[in-house]
């Protein structure tokens, strides 16, 4: 029996909103400090109700094979049983989650000076 391929739900901060996507692969990218997301999955076409935010995401990422998201923008990555529809979650103004992290991912050390 073949092992079922994992599905990941990824939430990341982009322009003051949280984007939620489903993907087949999430890895530490080849670009330093970035997470690589590929194999985007969208909701089923047979569903009668179409979420306008998912359509916005489809338009935003049309023709994109890989997304490189800065590590500090990642909110959460979950391995889930099945994919769902992507969505955009608006944050309230003044919400601290809407502000990017100012913590550096690499801090050079001062050696011998």
Describe the sheet with the most strands. Answer: 6 strands, antiparallel
> Which structural class do you get from the secondary structure elements?
mainly beta
Determine Rg (CA atoms, Å). 17 Å
* Structural domain tally: 1
What level of helicity do the residues show? Answer: under 10%
* DSSP strand content: 35-45%
Q: End-to-end distance, in Å?
A: 60 Å
List how many beta strands DSSP finds. Answer: 6
Write down the overall geometry. Answer: globular
Low-confidence segments, given as residue ranges, are none
Spell out the helices and strands N to C: EEEHEEE
Average predicted local confidence, pLDDT = 81
**What is the number of helices?**
1
Describe the fold and architecture.
The protein is mostly beta strands. The chain has one domain. The protein contains one helix and six strands. The protein has one helix spanning 52-60; strands spanning 7-14, 17-28, 34-41, 66-70, 74-80, 87-90. Strands 1, 2, 3, 4, 5 and 6 form a six-stranded antiparallel sheet that branches. The chain starts with 6 loop residues before the first strand and ends in a 23-residue tail after the last strand. The model has no long low-confidence stretch (mean pLDDT 81).
Question: Would you summarize the structure shown here?
Answer:
By secondary structure, the chain is mostly beta strands. Helix content is 8%, strand content 39%.
What's the helix and strand layout?
Layout: E1 7-14, E2 17-28, E3 34-41, H1 52-60, E4 66-70, E5 74-80, E6 87-90
Can you give keywords for this protein?
113 residues, mainly beta, 6-stranded antiparallel beta sheet, 1 helix, globular
